[in-house]
Write a structure and sequence with these properties.
By secondary structure, the chain is of the alpha+beta class. It is built from five helices and seven strands. Helix 3 crosses helix 5.
C-alpha cells in the first residue's frame, strides 16, 4: 500500500492553518471587538446625541475596552470641536457625558472670569467636578441641567510654609468673588481648597447656596 505523504502533509498543514486562523480571529475579536458591532454602536451613539441635542456630532476615536467588553467613543459636537467627551452605549444609560462636560465648562468659565488674574501669583490649579444626578440624562437645557446637579470647584496650590490665617483670607476672597459672579441656579456648589507646603496639607471648604 502506497502512502501519499504529500497529501497527508498538505492536509495536516491545512488543518493547522485553519486552527491558527480560528484562534487568531477569536483573539482579534476579544481584543479589538467586532467591526460590525462597532459600526452599529457608533451609529447608535451618534443618533441618540443628535436627537437629544438637535445638532450633529462627530466621532473622533473609537476604542474597544476588552476588560469591560464594550466600545468607547470619543465625540464632539460639530459646532464646538473643543468640547470633546468619551462615552459608551452602556454609560449612556445612566450618564450624559456631553452634558457633564458642557456644565463643568460653563462653571469653569464663570469662576475664571470672576477671579481674573488676581490670584495668578498662587500658581493654583482649578478643577470642576460634577456630582452626577442620573435623572438629568440628555437634558438639553443647560440652565435646567445645572439646577439639577451639584458641583465642586477644587483649588490647590503650594506654599513654602502654611499660615492658616493667610490661606483662610485668600480662600474667603475667592469664595466671595465666585458668589458674586454666580448668575445661574445650581443644585449645590461646594468650593474646596487644598494647600501643601511640602510636609502637610491644609484643607478648607464651604458651600455656596444660590
Amino acid at each position: 500500500m502506497n502512502i501519499n505523504w504529500k497529501k497527508i502533509v498538505l492536509f495536516a498543514l491545512g488543518v493547522l492553518t485553519a486552527i491558527v486562523l480560528f484562534f487568531g480571529i477569536n483573539l482579534y475579536l476579544a481584543l479589538e471587538g467586532s467591526p460590525f458591532e462597532k459600526w452599529q454602536e457608533r451609529r447608535e451613539v451618534v443618533r441618540i446625541y443628535e436627537e437629544a441635542y438637535g445638532k450633529e456630532f462627530v466621532v473622533e476615536e473609537s476604542k474597544f475596552d476588552y476588560k469591560r467588553n464594550e466600545f468607547e467613543f470619543t465625540l464632539y459636537p460639530e459646532d464646538d470641536p473643543a468640547m470633546t467627551f468619551r462615552t459608551s452605549l452602556n454609560t449612556m444609560r445612566y450618564k450624559d457625558a456631553y452634558g457633564e462636560v458642557r456644565s463643568r465648562s460653563h462653571i469653569h468659565e464663570i469662576v475664571s472670569e470672576a477671579l481674573g488674574s488676581d490670584f495668578d501669583y498662587l500658581d493654583y490649579t482649578m478643577n470642576v467636578f460634577e456630582n452626577h444626578n442620573p435623572t438629568d440624562v440628555f437634558e438639553p437645557d443647560l440652565i435646567k441641567r445645572l439646577s439639577m446637579n451639584s458641583y465642586t470647584v477644587d483649588f490647590s496650590w503650594d506654599v513654602e510654609r502654611i499660615y492658616s490665617a493667610e490661606i483662610d483670607a485668600v480662600f474667603e476672597d475667592i469664595v466671595a468673588r465666585i458668589e458674586d459672579a454666580l448668575n445661574v441656579e445650581l443644585g449645590e456648589l461646594k468650593v474646596r481648597s487644598s494647600v501643601y507646603d511640602g510636609e502637610e496639607y491644609y484643607f478648607k471648604d464651604t458651600i455656596i447656596d444660590k
